[in-house]
């Protein structure tokens, strides 16, 4: 039955905010979790004997015992946090995180579990460490001279969560719609090179859809069980959409794995320009959200708060598609990447293979270093690897160029 | 206490005036604002069902949603959880799924305002508000239950049973699921004679055992259908899941798949009577064994046996055969004949598969409102009729479409 008068898009963001507030107030008690407490820890503890993910390595019965009676103000529990890791035992070679946050408070309420997971995932980051945020693009040195014969495209992405709402594993339809409405309002006020348009997933025409696919902008309903088991695909495609500027160099995903994913990209190797656009665009968007008393989730210890603990800190992945057919087959390729604090992916993104010797090379770190520092590593590291590739083309050795550990 | 009345017409909602306010205008305002804000809060949560074709979407009005959205069962199961599968799976224009599940026995009461009309729609008019469901597992009442083996390749009867006091697969915790496994496996160990058998836990079976179960077509897999995964039924897989079967491989029980238990009696050939005999005997014996230990099945007069999916209420019974009907299946009257006999066809891979080599899976259409004996007799009579039609067509004779049989007896 349709209800045109009360169609969600007609309602102002305010009702979504009221919804979020009222639900938070009403649900300070999670009845189902209280009901579960009548079973013992032993009876409820998950079987992780075949599991290989960060959550499974960290979660002991003692920690589970301590946390199982707790819930965040919005009702998120430790079982909710770990469900994705229980359902996805992982792979012997690839260590996934195995847990998610349902809201900002998850990182506090479930510290005993999440702090060690964060430490394992982020190179020993301690609960007392502080994270530096630096979105001042002028601090980046160089980055405008990567050889376009090798570097095919440059891209920087991050995520942002809107304070006052719960995160994609937990949020309700009302919250998701309110996030969409706030995002549309913020993005449609952008001007100049940032002027653009919003395409809601459930409202785009066939022509628009094909164009977005051709531009490689369109995101699909998640099929990865890592995401679906965490509840992030619920109610698809309600309140999901894509915004991009007319130039197609600045793109925002709304309500996919995070509230917002912000992407700046262009063909060629001018990472400096990509990063400048990234920083300027982000700061403009943040101002507008702040005006509505819904700034971004951030704190001194964990930086920007996102759904997956792997994206804490900067949430930034700055990378290039670069042709390295010779270097990538060199015996020391992996070691070079590790020393440069970079990682490789195939050109389809995470968990894909490289095609034609073209690799996606990006920063490995997210937490404990700033945006500028991470992009600097990419710029310097890729520049070095392109020089190595050129040497190998000439049949020369690169042994003298192997860098020290950064 | 003043009570607002909500009139719903063509999708528009009107709040009528309050009739009586003893506390004066402030109370009216407060109550009115509370009511409006409650309603708007629910509206901002109301799912977008415009592209949807399932029973939940057809019956969930904004008013019903507003009424039920803040309720929970004693275990904490909510409406949003119950309808999530229907929101996430809009359905197909030709195939109308149910679109909603129960998280526990109480769901059928707490969310009755939505479930009752869904049940009525899905079960062809059975009205849970006024009708009673008959249970009858006396298999001696079945007659003519031996089919012609030249046509019927195999016979099978299945149902499900839920253990009262434990939540259902969409909502159960790991502890509850393990408890279901413990209770049922313990009871099954008490079966004797031709029912003596063994349990194979999914987490512990050897590769050899696994291969044997696959060869026997007994092994069930982690659900991949989004209808089930979106309802949370695959959580913690394969923890506390398993398969029990008797040594003769004619009586099989699935534990913790889509229901607490699925009970299956089957054999090659056309002796449906013997299959149903064993089915009833086995079920009653299992029930006796769990009752000895202080447990019982979920059942009530209104809805019969309580299972996860509303489509399986009542008997939860699907009695069917794999039968060769190459000529009849090509006759344009085939569908009508099946309809009138209150039978449904599936492919030999089960639901949502195609028929192979003119062999069809033919089973009862109904689940609720008729007893097990009545439904199995319907299948027996119907399949015998279909075989008669096939034989007549073989001889070049014409066939007749039978008159529609009465649905609720």
Automatic annotation (TrEMBL), chain A:
Lineage: Eukaryota, Metazoa, Chordata, Craniata, Vertebrata
GO MF, one example: ATP binding
Keywords in alphabetical order: ATP-binding, Kinase, Nucleotide-binding, Transferase
Keyword Transferase: yes
Enzyme Commission code: 2.7.3.2
Name of the protein: creatine kinase
Domain Phosphagen kinase N-terminal: 36-123
Pfam families noted in UniProt: ATP-gua_Ptrans, ATP-gua_PtransN
UniProt enzyme class: transferase
Entry keyword Thylakoid: no
GO BP annotations, alphabetical order: phosphocreatine biosynthetic process
Stated family: Belongs to the ATP:guanido phosphotransferase family.
Gene Ontology CC terms: extracellular space
Domain Phosphagen kinase C-terminal, chain residue ranges per copy: 150-392
Highest taxon of the lineage: Eukaryota
Binding site for ATP: 153-157, 216, 261, 317-321, 345-350
Automatic annotation (TrEMBL), chain B:
InterPro entries: ATP-guanido_PTrfase, ATP-guanido_PTrfase_AS, ATP-guanido_PTrfase_cat, ATP-guanido_PTrfase_N, ATP-guanido_PTrfase_N_sf, Gln_synth/guanido_kin_cat_dom
Pfam family, one: ATP-gua_PtransN
GO terms, molecular function: ATP binding; creatine kinase activity
Name of the top EC class for this enzyme: transferase
Keywords in alphabetical order: ATP-binding, Kinase, Membrane, Mitochondrion, Mitochondrion inner membrane, Nucleotide-binding, Transferase, Transit peptide
Record's protein name: Creatine kinase U-type, mitochondrial
Annotated localization: Mitochondrion inner membrane
E.C. numbers: 2.7.3.2
Topology of this chain in the membrane: Peripheral membrane protein
Family recorded in the similarity comment: Belongs to the ATP:guanido phosphotransferase family.
PANTHER family: ARGININE OR CREATINE KINASE, CREATINE KINASE U-TYPE, MITOCHONDRIAL
Record-level GO BP terms: phosphocreatine biosynthetic process
């Amino acid at each position: 039955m349709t209800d045109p008068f009360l169609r969600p898009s007609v309602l102002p963001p305010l009702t979504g905010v009221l919804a979020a507030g009222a639900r938070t107030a009403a649900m300070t008690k999670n009845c189902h979790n209280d009901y579960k407490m009548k079973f013992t820890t032993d009876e409820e503890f998950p079987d992780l004997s075949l599991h290989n993910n960060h959550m499974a390595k960290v979660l002991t019965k003692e920690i589970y015992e301590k946390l199982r009676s707790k819930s965040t103000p919005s009702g998120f529990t430790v079982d909710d946090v770990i469900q994705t890791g229980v359902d996805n035992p992982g792979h012997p070679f690839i260590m996934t995180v195995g847990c998610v946050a349902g809201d900002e408070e998850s990182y506090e309420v479930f510290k005993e579990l999440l702090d060690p997971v964060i430490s394992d995932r982020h190179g020993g980051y301690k609960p007392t460490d502080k994270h530096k945020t630096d979105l001042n693009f002028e601090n980046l040195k160089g980055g405008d001279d990567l050889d376009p014969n090798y570097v095919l495209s440059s891209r920087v992405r991050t995520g942002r969560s809107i304070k006052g709402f719960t995160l994609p594993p937990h949020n309700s339809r009302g919250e998701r719609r309110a996030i969409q409405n706030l995002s549309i309002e913020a993005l449609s006020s952008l001007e100049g090179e940032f002027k653009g348009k919003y395409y809601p997933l459930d409202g785009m025409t066939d022509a628009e859809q094909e164009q977005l696919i051709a531009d490689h902008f369109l995101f699909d309903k998640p099929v990865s069980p890592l995401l679906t088991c965490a509840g992030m695909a619920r109610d698809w495609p309600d309140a999901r959409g894509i915004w991009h500027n007319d130039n197609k160099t600045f793109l925002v995903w709304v309500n996919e794995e995070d509230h917002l994913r912000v992407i700046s990209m262009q063909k060629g190797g001018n990472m400096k320009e990509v990063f400048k656009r990234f920083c300027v665009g982000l700061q403009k968007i943040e101002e507008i959200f702040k005006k509505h008393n819904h700034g971004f989730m951030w704190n001194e210890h964990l930086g920007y708060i996102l759904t997956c603990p792997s994206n804490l800190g900067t949430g930034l992945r700055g990378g290039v598609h670069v042709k390295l057919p010779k270097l990538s087959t060199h015996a020391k390729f992996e070691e070079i990447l590790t020393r440069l604090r970079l990682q490789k992916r195939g050109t389809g993104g995470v968990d894909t293979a490289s095609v034609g010797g073209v690799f996606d090379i990006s920063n490995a770190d997210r937490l404990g270093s700033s945006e500028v520092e991470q992009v600097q590593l990419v710029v310097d590291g890729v520049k070095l690897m392109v020089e190595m590739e050129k040497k190998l083309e000439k049949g020369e050795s690169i042994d003298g160029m192997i860098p020290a550990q950064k | 206490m003043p009570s607002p009345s909500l009139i719903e017409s063509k999708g528009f909602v009107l709040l009528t005036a309050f009739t009586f306010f003893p506390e004066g205008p402030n109370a009216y305002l407060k109550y009115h604002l509370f009511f409006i804000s409650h309603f708007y809060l629910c509206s901002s949560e109301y799912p977008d069902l415009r592209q949807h074709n399932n029973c939940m979407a057809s019956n969930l009005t904004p008013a019903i949603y507003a009424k039920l959205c803040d309720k929970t069962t004693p275990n904490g199961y909510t409406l949003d959880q119950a309808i999530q599968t229907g929101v996430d799976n809009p359905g197909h224009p030709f195939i109308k799924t149910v679109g909603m599940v129960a998280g526990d026995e109480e769901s059928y009461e707490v969310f009755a305002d939505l479930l009752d009309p869904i049940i009525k729609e899905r079960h062809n008019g059975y009205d849970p508000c006024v009708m009673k469901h008959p249970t009858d597992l006396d298999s001696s009442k079945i007659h003519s239950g031996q089919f012609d083996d030249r046509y019927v390749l195999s016979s099978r009867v299945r149902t499900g049973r839920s253990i009262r006091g434990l939540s259902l697969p969409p909502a159960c915790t790991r502890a509850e699921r393990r408890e279901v496994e413990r209770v049922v496996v313990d009871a099954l160990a008490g079966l004797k004679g031709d029912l003596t058998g063994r349990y194979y836990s999914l987490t512990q079976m050897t590769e050899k055992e696994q291969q044997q179960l696959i060869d026997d077509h007994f092994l069930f897999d982690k659900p991949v259908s989004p209808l089930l995964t979106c309802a949370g039924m695959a959580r913690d897989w394969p923890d506390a899941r398993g398969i029990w079967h008797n040594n003769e491989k004619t009586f099989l029980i699935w534990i913790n798949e889509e229901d607490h238990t699925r009970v299956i009696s089957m054999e090659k050939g056309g002796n449906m009577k013997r299959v149903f005999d064993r089915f009833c005997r086995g079920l009653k014996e299992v029930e006796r064994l769990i009752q000895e230990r202080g447990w019982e099945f979920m059942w009530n007069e209104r809805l019969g046996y309580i299972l996860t999916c509303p489509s399986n209420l009542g008997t939860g019974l699907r009695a069917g055969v794999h039968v060769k009907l190459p000529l009849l299946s090509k006759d344009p009257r085939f569908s009508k004949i099946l309809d009138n006999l209150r039978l449904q066809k599936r492919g030999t891979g089960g639901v949502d598969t195609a028929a192979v080599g003119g062999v069809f899976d033919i089973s009862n259409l109904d689940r609720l409102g008729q007893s097990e004996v009545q439904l199995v007799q319907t299948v027996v009579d119907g399949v015998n009729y279909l075989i008669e039609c096939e034989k007549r067509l073989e001889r070049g004779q014409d066939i007749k479409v039978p008159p529609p049989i009465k649905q609720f007896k």
